[in-house]
Write a structure and sequence with these properties.
Layout (H helix, E strand, L loop, with lengths): L11 H9 L11 E2 L11 H9 L14 H14 L13 E4 L2 H12 L11 E6 L4 H8 L3 E6 L15 H6 E7 L11 H14 L2 E5 L16 H7 L8 E6 H4 L8 E5 L1 H14 L5 H12 L2 H21 L13 E2 L8 H12 L1 E2 L1 E2 L17 E4 L4 H16 L4
Parallel strand pairs: 1-10, 3-4, 3-5, 5-6, 6-7
Antiparallel strand pairs: 2-8, 7-8, 9-12, 11-12
Helix pairs in contact: 2-11, 3-11, 4-5, 4-10, 7-8, 12-14
């Protein structure tokens, strides 16, 4: 067996199941699950119709590169959404469809990390801490060492680039970013992203920006920026060493479609395409047709944002008197500190007494020399219907008002 498999840690939801396994929640209360970031709103009907109308295309193999109409729709969306110069995205060389961003984020490390080293030391893959655990698993199975960039409250939940030693940048081959952040909701602004782009050019590593929460934000006039914008702003031609990942899961309430894309540096994507021809994750033709329709429409996305704003407006006033909680800059997660500082005990007690499931923050982070930036917090995903989110908030409030740990 691949020995690096032994280096993988249990997935957060495995740990949560183990934490709650022996707990018998009150059966008179219906379960309210706010632990998983799986949108519960209905998928757009016109996308489902497009999917069904193309079932006849299942009689042919899909190509790894994907069909031209989908790649063209993605390139056009990127240029509109991130105000890129017209024609700056080449749909033939700078876009690859993915079977969801999860598989692409993982597979990228397998393609770009060079395991050989004259120093005898493993290359480094840098990632925010806390983080989406796929980044860590990707690094380990690519033969690299994860290097964690803490994102505590004192830095606005952003990595402190000045705290990274120069020798770490020199060993870095891949940097994962997540903006808006999971679980923190922090948005990396253009000056921050432009600095990352400059560091990548100086030290020769690839930046992979996970932007799958970018379409859920509070102000229609201020969408979160992206890495490709920053590359243009930094004067980097062809998005050199920069790739971004986007998905229809959150944007369009289509997590089961397993459809996303990676876009950016044509040289990186050429190598990644070669890898993916062996990797074998291709999008079925009906999924490609449905995805194209989703990327071409913004009305359903604006409606989706309105629903998330309604949830935040309804939930925050309920929780603020009892929790250190604030609205995320973008995305749909709350990331509050819990009274007493024991996130596992809080999550277990809340489930045991109120039948509400949240995720302990330490399940999304790793301890470093500065401490554990996830410990003492919980992630609350506001993905359920409005009335369920409000009901869950009141159950959390009553739980804390009664002095429960």
């Amino acid at each position: 067996m691949n020995p690096d498999l032994q280096r993988l840690r249990p997935y957060p939801f495995e740990r949560l199941r183990a934490l709650l396994a022996a707990v018998d929640p009150p059966r008179e209360l219906p379960p309210l699950r706010l632990s998983v970031g799986e949108p519960q709103d209905s998928p757009p009907g016109f996308v489902l119709e497009e999917l069904l109308s193309h079932l006849h295309t299942l009689g042919r193999y899909p190509t790894t590169r994907g069909e031209a109409p989908l790649r063209e729709a993605i390139a056009g969306w990127l240029e509109r959404r991130f105000r890129l110069p017209a024609g700056s995205m080449d749909p033939e060389r700078q876009v690859l469809p993915l079977a969801g961003t999860r598989e692409g984020l993982f597979a990228l490390a397998q393609a770009v990390v060079d395991r050989t080293s004259t120093s005898g030391r493993r290359p480094l893959v840098l990632m925010p801490n806390p983080f989406y655990q796929i980044y860590e698993g990707a690094a380990l199975l690519a033969g690299a060492e994860p290097y964690y960039l803490d994102t505590p409250e004192r830095t606005g939940f952003r990595p402190d680039l000045d705290a990274v030693p120069r020798e770490v940048w020199a060993r870095c081959q891949l940097l994962y970013l997540c903006t808006p952040g999971n679980p923190t909701g922090a948005v990396l602004d253009l000056p921050f992203l432009e600095r990352v782009v400059a560091l990548a050019q100086e030290h020769g590593f690839v930046v992979a920006s996970d932007e799958c929460y970018s379409e859920i934000y509070p102000d229609e006039d201020r969408p979160p920026p992206g890495l490709l914008q920053a590359a243009i702003g930094a004067g980097v031609e062809g998005f050199r060493r920069c790739v971004v990942f986007h998905s229809l899961s959150k944007r369009s309430n289509l997590p089961g479609l397993r459809s996303g894309f990676v876009a950016g540096d044509a040289r990186v994507l050429e190598a990644f395409h070669r890898y993916r021809t062996y990797h074998g994750c291709t999008l079925p033709p009906p999924v490609q047709a449905a995805s194209r329709r989703a990327w071409e429409d913004e009305d359903h996305v604006r409606a989706n944002r309105r629903r998330y704003r309604e949830r935040l407006r309804a939930v925050l006033p309920v929780l603020e008197p009892v929790l250190e909680v604030r609205a995320p800059e973008a995305g749909f997660y709350l990331w509050p500190a819990v009274p007493g500082g024991d996130d596992e005990a809080f999550a277990r007690g809340l489930y045991a007494r109120r039948h509400v499931t949240v995720l302990p923050g330490r399940y999304l982070s790793r301890p470093t020399a500065a401490g554990d930036p996830g410990a003492g917090r919980v992630r609350i995903a506001l993905v359920a219907e409005l009335q369920d989110c409000v009901e869950a908030a009141w159950r959390i409030r009553r739980h804390l008002e009664e002095g429960a740990a």
